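Supplementary Text 2. Reproducibility record for the structural model of the 324-residue chain.

All settings were left at their defaults, and a single model was retained for analysis rather than an ensemble. We include the record here because the model underlies the residue-level annotations in Supplementary Table 4.
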Amino acid sequence: MTTRRRLLQLATCTLAAPALPRLARAQAWPARQPIRAVIPFTAGSSVDVVGRIVLDPLASQLGQTIVVENRGGAGGTIGSAMVAKAEPDGYTLLVQASAHSAATAAYPGISYDVANDFAPVIPFGTIPNVTVVAPGRGIRTLKELVAAGKSGSLTFASAGIGSATHWAAERLRLSAGFQAVHVPFRGGVEGLTEVMAGRVDFFCVGISSALGFIRDGRLVPLAVSSRTRSTALPDVPTTLEAGYPDSDYTYWMGMLIAAATPRAIVERLYQETRVALALPAVVEKFKPQGIEPMPLTPAEFDALIRKEIVANVALVKAAGLKFN
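Retained model, structure tokens:
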């Protein structure tokens, strides 16, 4: 063997060496416990409810414990930042929602890059937001709420600036042409409490969080934000049916992971979560939550998020929203 050939072989081995430990880790994953799943909203929120439904069978399939950590606040950006900075070894997952793609527009100073610091794995599905008010308000239709907003001052709750609950309300407000003061909370549960108490006027919240309160009469549902009616609330019209174009909002929930995670781990997570989502027990638990399937590959999920980032920046400009 010539000296030149030996030098080329040595150079090739040197370049490949750093990848070998990563490849070995990916092949062995998951080899230790626990896997941590960060949910950047409070316990009892729609993301939390849906996330736990999926994570339970996923843990069994992987043969490892998945520990849920609720790190709410700042529209989901606190928990997301933790995952962006986590070791990209497959042991820290992010269960997020549409708030993820809104973060760039709502929080210009965030410490992470929404598009490039995460590897989208899989969406769990979509869930309509439902606009709710307290019975004592005397409002029974969305048109009555809009009329109240045009004739006076309304307040609306959200699970934080840039959250799906915030964005759904802003799309509705912009389409219907009324003003309302945004009152952000750390999570959906706090917002629901304030609306039921009559201290905040309305809330565009995920159905899974509000359904129990609607059924026991503590909240009145006015409209859902999906393009078609929800199977969970079939008698409640959509915001589009109520006559407000472009007021619909796609509220997805799903799993992401740090961008540098080996692709073999991302693919394994994708395949295992697909299996979990198809389990009869999961499908049955999803039905009363009004969750609709959203079958996207990791690449398709990534493309959706990037498209939404652009759309959300445009929404902020159109609505004249100002964020620090």
